Automatic annotation (TrEMBL):
Gene: hemE
NCBIfam families from the UniProt entry: hemE
Main location: cytoplasm
Site residues by UniProt (Transition state stabilizer): D77
Domain Uroporphyrinogen decarboxylase (URO-D), chain residue ranges per copy: 22-31, 140-156
GO terms under biological process: protoporphyrinogen IX biosynthetic process from glutamate
Keyword Cell inner membrane recorded: no
Residues that, per the record, bind substrate: R27, Q28, A29, G30, R31, D77, Y152, S207, H323
The protein's name in its UniProt record: Uroporphyrinogen decarboxylase
Organism of provenance: Algimonas arctica
Source organism, top-level taxon: Bacteria
Catalytic activity as recorded in UniProt: uroporphyrinogen III + 4 H(+) = coproporphyrinogen III + 4 CO2
Function field: Catalyzes the decarboxylation of four acetate groups of uroporphyrinogen-III to yield coproporphyrinogen-III.
Length: 351
């Protein structure tokens, strides 16, 4: 159904301090939900599942139904774009994403033109979800940050330090720039198509922004992200765009000021109150309950929730985790977090 432009997430993204803080969780659709597991079991392969609009739309809606979250996030993956670019991607059970590591010759051979068209099932999912979703709920589309996607393409898998990918950036700067260009073009087209199909908000997941020198951060995160946003805006897309430079430390300050993002999501390690003082005035902040506190439950969880609410209270805030829901989370603990937030009394804090 058509989005209500006064829904809580869109209000917060416009810089309003919403009375009942809007809530959604990264990876809210996933293995902690029995209804997800039931549909997941009908698809042999994770990529086939992402490319099945009926199934993907259904699991996108599940957490909104169960928890009354304020937003749905499109069920897809940041590693669909490498498929559009002509690379092989597999999700191996118990191992995670597995790709054929790319080199300079492979970068030359990427099929940049039309890459986003080759994953068009995703836009069907977006349209199906928006058609069913209540106007009071926002639909979030997304892509991976160019650097984060590049790490998987270069290393062939998730690794702790992304050392090979960083080495490649130093040793083969031209090939790295060409890879960034391919990812900027295809990711921007991917976001433009999602917004065209009905996404109300777009998010760029730069999950591996930690440990980059300021120079690499500039080349691999800041400029490519700014280029994506410039291209999306040039296409006439006006929806809010959220950035998530997870683990970026002080590099996140320039990210907030120089990429053109509307709002910023904070990882678990960010003190929200201090962080707010460094970013543009009135910019909404999203985050950042520790997913491990959610998994722990009980009193420690409620204390952690209160802390995030207090830290976020000085400006527009969207409640979320600092990273994704883990599969071992208890449904009752998610309900407890949501009840705590919905009943939180700000009057003392705000005087
Ligand atoms: O609920 C949601 O958040 C929406 C859907 C979504 C998925 N992946 C589904 C998924 C989103 C937004 C992503 C983004 C994504 N994918 C990121 C950035 C966010 C982050 O968590 O930092 C990254 C780094 C990836 C790459 C990726 N996809 C990895 C490393 C893995 C394996 C890890 C795991 O949990 O198994 C995936 C697989 C994946 N993507 C799953 C889901 C629900 C699990 C697959 C399954 O159902 O078995």
């Amino acid at each position: 159904m058509k989005t209500d432009l006064n829904n809580p997430i869109l209000r917060a993204l416009r810089g309003e301090r919403v009375e009942s803080v809007p809530i959604w969780f990264m990876r809210q659709a996933g293995r902690h939900l029995p209804e997800y597991m039931e549909i997941r079991a009908t698809a042999h392969d994770f990529i086939d599942f992402c490319f099945s609009p009926d199934k993907a739309a259904e699991v996108t809606l599940q957490p909104v139904r169960r928890y009354d979250m304020d937003a749905a996030i499109l069920f897809a993956d940041i590693l669909l774009i490498p498929i559009g670019l002509g690379r092989q991607v597999e999700f191996v059970k118990g191992v995670g994403p597995t790709l054929d590591p790319i080199d300079a010759a492979g970068i030359d051979a990427l099929t940049v033109s039309g890459a986003a068209d080759r994953v068009s099932q995703v836009y069907e999912t977006v349209a199906k979800v928006r058609a069913e979703l209540d106007p009071s709920k926002a639909l979030i589309g997304f892509c991976g940050g160019p650097w984060t996607v590049a790490t998987y393409m270069l290393e062939g898998k998730g690794t702790p330090n992304k050392e090979q990918a960083k080495r490649f950036a130093y040793e083969q700067p031209e090939a790295m720039a060409a890879l960034m260009h391919a990812l900027v073009e295809s990711s921007a087209d991917y976001l433009i198509a999602q917004a065209g199909a009905g996404a109300d908000v777009l998010k760029i997941f730069e999950s591996w922004a930690e440990g980059l020198s300021p120079d690499l951060f500039d080349r691999l995160v800041l400029r490519p992200t700014a280029d994506i946003i410039t291209k999306v805006r040039a296409a006439g897309i006006t929806v809010p765009i959220m950035g998530f430079p997870r683990g970026a430390g002080l590099n996140a300050i320039r990210y907030a000021h120089e990429t053109g993002i509307t709002a910023i999501a904070a990882g678990t390690d960010v003190p929200l109150g201090d962080f707010r003082a460094t970013i543009p005035d009135g910019m909404a902040v999203q985050g950042n309950l520790d997913p491990l506190a959610l998994r722990t439950g009980g009193r420690p969880l409620l204390r952690a929730v209160d802390q995030v609410l207090r830290d976020g209270a000085d400006g527009p805030h969207i409640f979320n985790l600092g990273h994704g829901v883990t599969p071992d989370v208890q449904i009752d603990d998610v309900h407890a977090v949501i009840n705590r937030i919905r009943n939180f009394d700000y009057s003392e804090l705000r005087g």
